[in-house]
Every structure is written in structure tokens, then in C-alpha cells.
Amino acid sequence: MPFVPFCDGWEPDTDPPAYLGWYAASLASADPAVVDAATIPVERIAGRVVLVAGGDDQVWPAADFAAAIAARRDAHGLPTSVVTAPDAGHRVLLPGETPVEGGQRMRRGGTVDADRALGERAWPHVVDALGLAAYR
């Protein structure tokens, strides 16, 4: 499967590490043909797509990726919902979820409150896209 390789020699400048810069450096240094080959053909997804992204995601550029996906789908007239919040991080909390305490040690950005608020805003879009009206 095509992929964009991570940039060699990149070192985080925070502890715990934030990987946002690694993604940015890797994409900036990659051959555009490699990036094109690794790009998921989202215009082939026939159904409605819901993209949920925190603007303070420190793992990868989620909001930028979501905007790019939405633009490509919009150009093909495909239904796409984008739900973002500038203060939310990588881990969106949908209604009923609790914050994850474990996992790899890294900066994820946002706050529990911001991540939960984004999840609550996103939930109706997810319910609608899946046709689950009883779960509103």
C-alpha cells in the first residue's frame, strides 16, 4: 500500500512528544508523486462522510486533513460533514465515552472538556449519517 514515509532525523521538541511537526516535515519533504499515490481516493466513497477533527490535535494535522478531504468530496458533489473545534485535541469524546488514560506517551492537545464538547457537537452528524434517528 502506498504511503508517505516519515522524515528521517526528525526529533520532537517537547516532552511528552507532539508528532504534528513530524507529519508536517514528512509531507513537506516527500515527492509530490508519493503523496498523490498515498492519498486515499475519498471521492470513491459513495456514502455520506462525517469528519471530526480537533484544531489543537498535536498528533497530526487533523483539521487540515479534514478540510482537504471535504474539498475533494465537495468537488465531486458528495455529501460530507466537517465538525471541528479549535480547542479540541486528538481524542474526541463521543457522548458516553470516558477519557483514555493509557496508551503511548505523547501530547494529544486539547482538554477533556474541549474534546467532549466536540464529540457532543459531532454526535448528531454521526447519528444522521448512519441513519440512527433513535439515538439522537
From TrEMBL:
Annotated ranges, domain BAAT/Acyl-CoA thioester hydrolase C-terminal? 36-95
One Pfam family in the UniProt entry: BAAT_C
Protein's recorded name: BAAT/Acyl-CoA thioester hydrolase C-terminal domain-containing protein
Q: What is the lineage of its organism?
A: Bacteria, Bacillati, Actinomycetota, Actinomycetes, Propionibacteriales
